[in-house]
Every structure is written in structure tokens, then in C-alpha cells.
Amino acid sequence: MHGHQRLNRLRMMAPSIFQCAVGAGLAWLVAKDVIGHPRPFFAPVAVVVAVGVGFGQRLRRVAEMVVGVSLGVGVGDLLVAWIGTGSWQITLVVALAMAVAVFLDRGSVIALQAASSAVLVATLLPPSGLGGLDRMVDALVGGLLGLAAVSLLPASPARLITRHATALFGALASTLRATADAIDQSDSALAATALESARTTQEHVEEFRQALDTGREISLISPVHRRYRCHLEGYEKAAVPLDHALRNVRVLARRAMVALDGGSQLPPWLPGALRELADAAMLLCDELAQGGSPRKACMAVLTVASRQGSERWGFSADVMIAQLRSIIVDLLEATGTGRGEALSALPPLDAPHRPGRS
Fold this sequence. Notes:
Elements: H1 3-34, H2 42-51, H3 58-83, H4 87-104, H5 108-122, H6 131-152, H7 157-185, H8 188-198, H9 202-221, H10 229-261, H11 270-290, H12 295-306, H13 315-334, H14 339-344
Helix pairs in contact: 1-2, 1-6, 2-3, 2-6, 3-4, 3-5, 3-6, 4-5, 7-8, 7-9, 7-10, 7-11, 8-10, 9-10, 10-13, 11-12, 11-13, 12-13
Subcellular location: Membrane
Keywords: Membrane, Transmembrane, Transmembrane helix
Pfam families: FUSC_2
């Protein structure tokens, strides 16, 4: 990963890091000075687990954290008070805590928290009086303050999603333009470079999906960000079609490389159509970021569809045309157009083209 990519990732994660840091400090303060627990270890830990530096499923992580800590503390307190501490006692405590956690739920956080909590009870935090109950309360306090940090501290879900969506649309458009340049210059190396760049986009697709989950979650639990719910709908409609478009553009670039290596005849209108589609994709990106209906982008994609040649040119060219048609359908669906309507916007394909045919 290059330096600028690392900086971009840090910028994207900065709100979560800020929320973790502030929430952890507040959780310790509340559990120690307000509730009166002398060593509220689990309170700041619960904040970090709840907020994290990833995206999505924070409500579930809070629930898993509290349940996992409760299981680990409960099993640890019960067994350590009875059998004492030591290597074989830790082995038994961890095995039982994790077994109960896995039996109750398949979530990995529950099992890991149950095991780590049991180890802490068996080693550093031996049971005393109401210690087990206090630790459960600490976990709940930390989880709730973690959710409060997500809800109230600045981290606009729309800005977060727009940032990831812009990266995806940019990758789609740049691959389309690079493929067009490769066809214009009959340069298979350019097509190979476009393909190599497009292959790196799947990680961004996953991060975009997680950002959508996070945005949806924040808009549900945060009174500050509820107004963004309607804004997120456009991105939710576009998520799956955008993933499909990126997959199709990878196939397109691969086939362009093969076609140019083999000297295949390609339609003269194809590079212009690819560039127009790239422009339409970026227009869709802009309209989704503004939160309005992407009518202009829809019209731009329809224009590309209507100006296609309908003739067929041979295997490699036909594969590329098929991928172009698929990307057109994907982008139309991303604008909210139904699949049937998107398919009907494409001209029918004629019989295979033969050179010299009148």
C-alpha cells in the first residue's frame, strides 16, 4: 500500500479513532468516579469493541461484548472460587466459557470476550464479593457509551459513504477510459494496466458495503443523523449494481487485452462509448452525493445505450460489446431503473458482421 493510500485510510478511520478514544476515557470516568468501581477495566474495552475502527454491526458488537463478558466473568468467578487458579484451571475456565458462548451464539466476539474475561478473572482479577456483577456493569456502561460516541460525536454517515462511493465510481470510470485509450492506440499493454488497476477494487467494494451498514446504523441510533436516511437510499439502490459493473469492467479490460494481442477487429464507435459511459458514471456519483434523484445520469446512460452499433464483429469484439451492454444495464439499475426497463433500452443485436458486407 502506497503512502497516499495509507493517509487516505487514516483520514477515513479518523472519526472512529476519535470516537474510540473519547468514549474509552469517558467510560473509565463514569464507571470509576460515578458508579464507584475501583478498576473498571471492561468499561473502556467495551467502548473499543463497540466502536472499533471497522464499519457496521456496532449494535451487535455491543450485545456480543456484554454477553461475552458476562459469560466469561460468570464462569470464571464460579470455577475460580471453587477450584482456585493455575494453568489447568485456566485451561478449564477458557474451554468452558468458550463452549457455552459458541453454544449460545455463532458470533466470534462473544466467544473471544468470554475467553478473555475468564482468563482475567482467573489471573489478574480474582473474584471478590460482587466483582463479577461489577464487571458486567462495566461492560454494559462501556457498550452504551460506545454507542453514544457513535451517535453524538461527529462522523457524518453520508460523508463516509460518499467517500467510499467516489472511490468506486472513480475506479470504474478510470478503467473505462483506460480501456478506451488502449483500443484507440491498439496497445494491449495499456489494457493490461487497466485490468491490473481494476483488480484492486474488490476491497473497496467491501468497504463501501460496510460503510453503508455503518451509515444505516448511525442514522437509526443517532438523532443528529436521522435526516440522512433518505440520502442513503440512493446509495443502497446503487450498491449491488455498482459491484456488478466493476466486475463487468474487469472482464471488459481483460478481453480488450486479448483482442488487441490477437489483432481482432473492434468497432470504431467503442472507445467513444466507453468514455461517454465513464462520464455518465461520474455524473451518477455526483448526483448520489447531492442526495437527489439521478435523472441526468440516467439520461446520460440511456444516450450511450441508444448510440451503440447493433452489428456484431467477431468473438472478442462481441464479448466486449456484451460487457459494455451489461455495464449499461448495471448503471441504469444503479440509478433506480428496473432491470426490465434497463434491458429494453438496449438495441437488439444483428447477425455477425462480415467485412465487406453492404
